[in-house]
């Protein structure tokens, strides 16, 4: 069963922090690398962070040093800790496998504004 349920988005001031969560099925979580994507208004969806089954991690340059991806196998959940948020981080954030499946969740809105 393939599904993704993202949560944790909010309105936050510049410099603030948020932690996003992504719940998926045990089948997906134990078989695939996980990744976070985002789509800002008027822009294409972009890959921002990925973590393999073995814990290897990569980040897009735009978030490197500010965002931290992790996964908890006991909860079938991936996380994205976002620190030092900037207005250009405003977007809908999605999780999926890496490479992505055709199934997408509803996403979670992150708005960074003063």
Please give a structural write-up:
There is one protein chain. Helix content is 5%, strand content 47%. It is mainly beta and 114 residues long. The strands form 2 sheets. The protein has a 6-stranded mixed sheet. A 4-stranded antiparallel sheet has the order 1-3-8-7. Strand 5 and strand 6 form a beta hairpin. The longest helix is centred in the N-terminal third of the chain and has 6 residues, at 26-31. The protein starts with a strand and ends with a strand.
How many distinct beta strands?
Answer: 10
Low-confidence stretches: none
Q: Could you give the distance between the termini?
A: 40 Å
Helicity, as a percent range: under 10%
- Beta percentage is over 45%
Strand order of the largest sheet: 2-10-9-4-5-6
Dominant shape? globular
Largest sheet: 6 strands, mixed
Rg from alpha-carbon coordinates:
13 Å
Residue-averaged pLDDT, rounded?
96
Structural class, please?
Answer: mainly beta
Order of helices and strands: EEEHEEEEEEE
Count helical runs: 1
């Amino acid at each position: 069963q393939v599904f993704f349920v993202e949560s944790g988005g909010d309105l936050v001031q510049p410099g603030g922090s948020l932690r996003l969560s992504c719940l998926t099925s045990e089948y997906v979580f134990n078989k695939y690398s996980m990744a976070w994507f985002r789509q800002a208004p008027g822009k294409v969806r972009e890959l921002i962070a990925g973590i393999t089954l073995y814990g290897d991690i990569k980040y897009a340059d735009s978030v490197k040093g500010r965002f931290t991806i992790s996964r908890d196998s006991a909860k079938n959940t991936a996380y994205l800790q976002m620190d030092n948020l900037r207005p250009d981080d405003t977007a809908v954030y999605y999780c999926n496998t890496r490479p992505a499946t055709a199934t997408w969740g509803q996403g979670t809105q992150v708005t960074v504004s003063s």
